[in-house]
Amino acid sequence: MAVTECRLSVELFRPIFQEIKDSETLVSLSLTNKLFQSEAQRILFFFPAYFSTRPRQHLRLLTCLLNNPRLALLVKKYHVPAVIGPKKAAIWTLLGSVLPYMTNLKEFSVSAFRDDINLLPMEKLAFQLEVLTWIQVDSMNCGIFPKWLATQKKLKKLKWISRTPVEVPASACPNLISLEGTFHAINALLPGRDIKRLYWLADPALERSPLVGNTLDRLSGSMESLESLSFDTRVNAIHYHGLASHLPSLVLLELNGCDVESINNTVSSISNLRHIVLSTQKGYGRRDVFTMKKRADVVQGVFSRSPTLVRVDIAVNLEGSHCKVFYERWENGNRREDLVPSTDIFQH
Question: Which Gene3D superfamilies match (predicted)?
Fold first, then answer.
């Protein structure tokens, strides 16, 4: 068979292509024939940042997409790389030109500093996202994002870090079911939406702020539909044990940094709790939450205080596991032999 021909149906070789994890092999296959080229490009450009993590590689990627808008249509996931130095300005400038061509984009992740946001033509972005991470590190131009967010009608999962108070139209994000954010983002988006999964991130800047005084009363009605809650307990303006009486539907509770007494009080106050996860805090060093003996004591305590509880996961420290957190799992008071990765716990 000549390299310019291919008599196989797409259904036969597509599963094989999807198992290929390196870009060089996919590029080689794309040079074989037109049908292989189409399948290889579909995978290469589905999540192009996966193969282009270095600044120079990423500049070449964006230049390629700008010169070939057809390829930009293949992009479904795009994460703006964390770049410092002279190439950062070039990447953001190119991104502003390329992003409007990614009309089929479904997942977008960006961290904006100072005037970065000005380089994105928000009014020209036609895609409808399902997953979005937006980290606004400083307070400049914060009003641009909430207005654009109101256009994302299909958004289901959002991570939003905002350091300043924000307002979002009531009609924004009608299909949002998972929210991860700091106080201001939660205060703006939780009311009026049927959110099932909430990750409440700590915000040290608000530890003593008067803004949080009546937050629980205002949000209590919106928290009644929560089924899963993760909570950063360290340096947080809200105390998690104060949330317990507002969570009648909660099934899963994750706590990042906690003490035994507060854990017991919280667990006994949540009527339908079935699963509790005790994790290390994101952004801090990997370490045991408790010693081996204390883990056993904690497990015994929470099971004795919650008749509905069936599972407890406690984070443990493993050498070489910096990319994942693994958990020791206890079910109905019995410890499992194998450890469980975080990806198996949070599948929302």
Answer: Ribonuclease Inhibitor
